[in-house]
Amino acid sequence: MGSLPPFSSDVINPHSPPNTKTTTTTTTTQFSSASSCIDETTLLNLFKSQQSHLNFFFQHLDLPQTLAFTRTLLLQSSAGATIFFSGVGKSGFVAHKISQTLVSLGIRSGFLSPLDALHGDIGALSKTDVLVLFSKSGTTEELLRLVPCAKAKGAFLISVTSVDGNALASLCDMNVHLPVERELCPFDLAPVTSTAIQMVFGDTVAIALMGAKSLTKEQYAANHPAGRIGKSLIFKVKDVMKKEDELPVCKEGDLIMEQLVELTSKGCGCLLVIDAEHRLIGTFTDGDLRRTLKASGEAIFKLTVGEVCNRHPRTIGPDAMAVDAMQKMEAPPSPVQFLPVINDQNQVIGIVTLHGLVSAGL
């Protein structure tokens, strides 16, 4: 299947009016030829048509208008306002999603259902808040009924529409026009291109707000504690390590065969060899046991752990990030399944295992 060309200004001339008739004919023909099946060429042409429609949006978007919209959200949210979004149908799903994106960035936001708002939910709206209303046509009846009620609450109203001179825009304090050449639908009816544009617009503005507020990775992670991103930026080694009675420890003078229970019962696949002050001397793994048994045979019954342990194991500190521990385990020359956790005095205070990191969601 052929690849899509990159977005470029060559797809549509921004200084020429859109040829809606030609585009409609092309899209309809694509659907007609695929009445009985869908082949690669048909699908590729549809993607190219959608790309062309998106290019039209990028080339005709009013940037000063969009900047005014973004700055308004930034100013109001910085002053403690909640940014509410509303819409009906597919636009409602988009509005809900953009609201959730802002919340994940630490910006106070919420979705206000136009139907539920008229039955009590408008109580969440105050005169310090902003209400952003998404509607392609700007004639959505539910939103038009909501506007006077929201105005009575004193909220600042912004419409985001795609049809010039619409009723919703005339009633709001600010309007943002999202240029839509046509829907990808052969009948120019199903809202697929317009909702894609709404989503691109809203999410891009959200990231602009994220940059303006100088949100750090740590702050972002704090809003996603259960996700892999959050865990990788929040969890430290001390949060996921085994410690105290869970540690498989022994002394270097202990006989190997006397430490088999300790080696196998703690679920770490190793022994941490320590001295009288709990300082780390080395490690002895179940792999070391197999190699020693193969090389020494019956002589293994007389060998001590200290004679065959690895005295230069990889280690990590308790305040290191858990994700760094995983990277250290996987580093050359060969991966390991665990890392002893030591303090500044080289004393063993824990052990972190690859299984433990995976179980923690990392």
UniProtKB/TrEMBL annotation:
Superkingdom classification of source: Eukaryota
Residues the UniProt record annotates as site (Catalytically relevant): 90, 142, 183, 224
Annotated InterPro entries: CBS_dom, CBS_dom_sf, KdsD/KpsF-type, SIS_dom, SIS_dom_sf, SIS_Kpsf
Domain CBS: start-end pairs: 241-300, 309-362
Keywords noted in UniProt: CBS domain, Repeat
Pfam families for this protein: CBS, SIS
Coiled-coil features, chain-numbered ranges: none
GO BP annotations listed: carbohydrate derivative metabolic process; carbohydrate metabolic process
Keyword Repeat: yes
Database matches in PROSITE patterns: CBS, SIS
Ranges where the SIS domain occurs: 70-215
Region (Disordered): 1-27
Family as reported in the entry's similarity comment: Belongs to the SIS family. GutQ/KpsF subfamily.
Protein's UniProt name: Arabinose 5-phosphate isomerase
Organism placement in taxonomy: Eukaryota, Viridiplantae, Streptophyta, Embryophyta, Tracheophyta
